[in-house]
Amino acid sequence: MSHNHTTADALATWERRYAEALDGTAEARDKQPNPWLARHVPAPPAGVRQRALDLGCGAGHDTAWLLAQGFEVTAADLSANALALSLRRNSGARHVQADLLALDHVLPVPALPEDAWHLIVASLSLHYFNLEDTRKVFAAIRARLRPDGLFAFRVNAFDETGAPPDAASSWDLSTIGTDALPRQYFSEEKIHTVLEGQFVLRFLEKQTVSRYGSQKSLYEVVAVKA
Ligand SMILES: C[S@@+](CC[C@H](N)C(=O)[O-])C[C@H]1O[C@@H](n2cnc3c(N)ncnc32)[C@H](O)[C@@H]1O
Which structural domains are found in the chain, ordered by start? Predict the structure, then answer.
C-alpha cells in the first residue's frame, strides 16, 4: 500500500493503539460497544448468501455480530494490528488491509452489480477526512453497494468532547485531543451534504453512547443508494 503523509501518520497512531490491545495491556479499549446494527440490519434469509463489508473494522466487534447473523463478511482496516485483533475473534471473516481513500487496490468495484455488497457498515471510521476526501470515500462506498444494498454508519457529532465550536458547519479537520489525530465532527447538515445525490436517508439519529469508559456523542445513519 502507498500512503500520503497524513495517512502514514494516522496509520502509525492506530498501529500503536491496537498494539496495546493486542498484547492485552489495554483490554478496556477492546470492550464491546453497543450492538447498534441490530436495530437496522435484518439477518440474511435462510440459505441466501449475503455479503457484508465492515470498513474500519477495528477490533472487529461489528464483524463478529455480522458473522453471527449469517453474513459473509469482509473486514477492512488501515491498521494491521486492528486486523490481527479482529481475526482473533473472527476467523470466519476475510480480512484486508485497506485505506478508505484507496479501496481500488484491494477491494475493486465488482464488475457485476449483483456481485457487489448487500451491506456496508462503517462505525466511527468515516470522520477522519476533509470534505473532498469524505465525498471520495462515500462515492467509493456507493460504487461497492448493490442497487438494493444498505449503508449503515456512525460518525462523531458536533458536540462531542474536543469538537471545535464551529464544528457543525466547518469542514476543517480538528487536531484537538491527546493523539492529535485529525478528526471531523458532523451535524445533520454536514451529513446531508455528503449524502446528497448519492444516497437516500433511511434513518438518522443523534445519540450519546458509552464508549471506552466515557460518553460519546455521535450520529447513527442508515442510507440506501439514490
Ligand atoms: C474509532 S475506530 C472504530 C473501530 C470499529 N469500527 C468500532 O466501531 O469499534 C476507527 C477505525 O478506523 C480505522 N481507520 C482510520 N482511518 C482509516 C483509513 N483511512 N482507512 C481505513 N481505515 C481507517 C482505524 O484504523 C480504526 O480501526
Answer: 5-225 (3.40.50.150)
CB 218 less than 6 A from any atom of ligand 1: no
If you average pLDDT over residues 174-197, what whole number do you get?
90
Residue pair 43/69 in contact by the 8 Å Cβ criterion: yes
Q: Among candidates 121, 137, 140, which has minimal Cα distance to 129?
A: 137
- Centre of ligand 1 to C-alpha 56, Å, is 4
- Nearest-atom index, ligand 1, CA of 82: 27
Among 3, 15, 77, 220, the mutation site with the greatest number of ligand 1 atoms within 8 A of its Cβ is 77
Is residue 54 a contact partner of residue 67, using CB atoms and an 8 Å limit? no
Q: What is the pTM of this model?
A: 0.93
Does 126 contact ligand 1 (Cβ within 6 A)? no
Question: 45-98 pLDDT, tens per residue?
Answer: 999 999 999 999 999 999 999 999 999 999 999 999 999 999 999 999 999 999
Residue 56 exposure: Cα atoms within 13 Å on the Cβ side: 20
> Measured in Å, how far apart are the chain's first and last C-alpha atoms?
31
Q: Which residue's CA lies nearest to atom 10 of ligand 1?
A: 125
